[in-house]
Amino acid sequence: MSDPLIRIAEALERISPPPPAAPDLNAAEAFVWHTAPDRLEPVAKVARVDVGLLVGVDRARDILLENTRHFAKGLPANNALLWGARGMGKSSLVKAIHAQVRAEGLDLKLVELAREDLPSVQRLLAHLRASDKQFVLFCDDLSFSHDDQHYKSLKAVLDGGIEGRPENVVLYATSNRRHLMPRDMIENERSTAISPSEAVEEKVSLSDRFGLWLGFHPCTQDDYLAMIRGYCDAHGLRIDENTLRAEAIEWQATRGARSGRVAWQFFTDLAARHGVAI
After folding, report:
1. Rounded to whole angstroms, how far apart are CA atoms 190 and 207?
2. C-alpha angle 234/235/239, rounded to 5°?
3. Domain ranges of the chain
4. Which of 57, 107, 118, 228 has a 20 to 30 Å separation from 273 between CA atoms?
5. Any idea which architecture 30-216 has in CATH?
C-alpha cells in the first residue's frame, strides 16, 4: 500500500475509532457514567453516611429500602423521585440504602448519571441491559428549565420506548422540585400558550412516571440536634449536652436555616475544634 493510502486509512481510523471495550462491572460497587468517550468509571470509595445517621426521614427510608431490596432480589420495583427541601438527605439516603442492601448480601450496583449527560442514556442502558447485575441508576439534583429538552431523554429510562426499561435497571432521582420544573415557568407557559393545559402537561407529567414520590421537608430543631448528637456518638466526640445545644443553635442562626447539611457542616467544624478525625 502506498504512503497516501496508508495516511488515508489512518485518518479514517481516527475519525471512526473502534468501539470501546465492554466495561468491567465487577471492578467496583459503584460507577460514574462519562461521555466523550463513553465509559463507566469505577468509584473506589462512595462518599456516604450510615443509614442509621439519617434522622427525620424514617418513612422515606423504610419505603425506599423495601423497594430497593425487592429490586436487588429481582422482584418488581418502582422508579423513585426524592423531592423536597435542600440539604435534607435525599442523595445521602440513596447512597446509604445502596450500602445497606449490599451489606445484606445483595450484589446491587450504583451508577451515577449527570443531568447534562441524559441525552446519552440510551447508550448507557445498552451497557447495563447486557449485564446480569442489578443497577440503581442515580440522577442527582434533577430539574428542567422551559427550553430544556433533556427531559425527553429521561423518558427512555422511565418508559423505555419499544424495548421497555431494562428489567435490571431502576431509576432513583433527587430534585428540589416535585414536578421537576419551576412553578413560575409552569404558570408562564399556561398563560401564554394557545392550549395552556397541553403546553406543560408533557413536562409536568414526567414526575408522574415515577412510581414512588418521597417528600423531604425542613427539619425541626429537635431533629437538627438529634442529627448532630448522632454524628458525635458515631465519631466518639464527647461534649457537654448544654454546650453542644447552644453552639448548634448559634450555628443554625448564622446560616438562617436548619437541615441535615447544616447539621453536618456544624459537626465538621466541631470535630475539627476538638481534634476528632471524620
Report:
1. 18
2. 100
3. 30-216, 221-273
4. 57
5. 3-Layer(aba) Sandwich (3.40)
